[in-house]
Specification:
Blueprint (H helix, E strand, L loop, with lengths): L1 H20 L12 H26 L3 H12 L2 H15 L7 H32 L2 H20 L3 H4 E6 L1 E4 L2 E4 L2 E5 L3 H10 L2 E6 L7
Helix pairs in contact: 1-2, 1-5, 1-6, 2-3, 2-5, 4-5, 5-6
């Protein structure tokens, strides 16, 4: 019993800390309000606990508990719908709309973060059960490293090559290299663009980087 307590405790704590790590918030990101913290940290704790108790349930051959865990895990799919609905309501108050693609992306991210928490808790509880608390600590450190890495996300250089483009005019048409950008009628505006403007070409590395 003490062994299971240690396993569940290590897994749950690791999973919950992981959720705190990947709870990215500032004035541009959701959640940025008290209810957002409470909701997602609470769901993160539940996800961590579910992942942590999986190994004790399997080792005691409590397959009814395993079935319950599977059902509980499926409920996290509803998080995407909850986030989508919340962000759509917040979108009405935005001066510049962020668009459906942004909302859908954020909603799917919040769903996947809970699965990441579950996997982290499961990994730590497994390591603790089959080794000892030292193995659990090592596994927890690995989980935290992965969480920090996932927080960074991709940058432009990961999906595309950025090159400086040459600005020029073909009559009134502004061109970046050979690509026509816009029509600029005023001579003063054309002169200002040539003197102060900067253009870049973003070339995707593969089809995944294309719009």
């Amino acid at each position: 019993m003490e062994k299971f307590t240690e396993v569940i405790l290590f897994g749950t704590i690791t999973g919950f800390i992981t959720r705190i790590i990947i709870l990215k918030t500032d004035y541009r990101f959701y959640p940025g309000y008290p209810h957002g913290y409470v909701t997602h940290l609470s769901l993160g704790f539940i996800a961590a606990f579910i992942g942590a108790v999986a190994i004790p349930a399997l080792t005691t051959k409590d397959f009814a508990a395993v079935t319950f865990l599977a059902i509980a895990a499926q409920q996290f799919r509803d998080i995407r719908n909850m986030e989508r609905e919340t962000l759509n309501k917040l979108e009405k108050n935005e001066l510049v709309g962020r668009g459906e693609d942004y909302i859908e992306g954020i909603a799917s991210v919040f769903e996947s973060r809970n699965y990441l928490v579950m996997f982290g808790a499961l990994l730590v509880s497994t390591a603790t059960y089959f080794t000892n608390y030292i193995g659990g600590i090592i596994a927890a450190v690995l989980v935290f490293i992965v969480a920090f890495r996932l927080m960074k996300g991709e940058t432009i250089q990961d999906i595309a090559t950025v090159k400086e483009a040459h600005l020029s005019f073909d009559g009134a048409f502004l061109k970046a290299d050979e690509i026509i950008i816009m029509n600029v009628g005023l001579a003063e505006s054309r002169k200002k663009i040539l003197n102060e403007g900067l253009a870049v070409r973003i070339i995707p590395n593969n089809d995944n980087g294309r719009l």
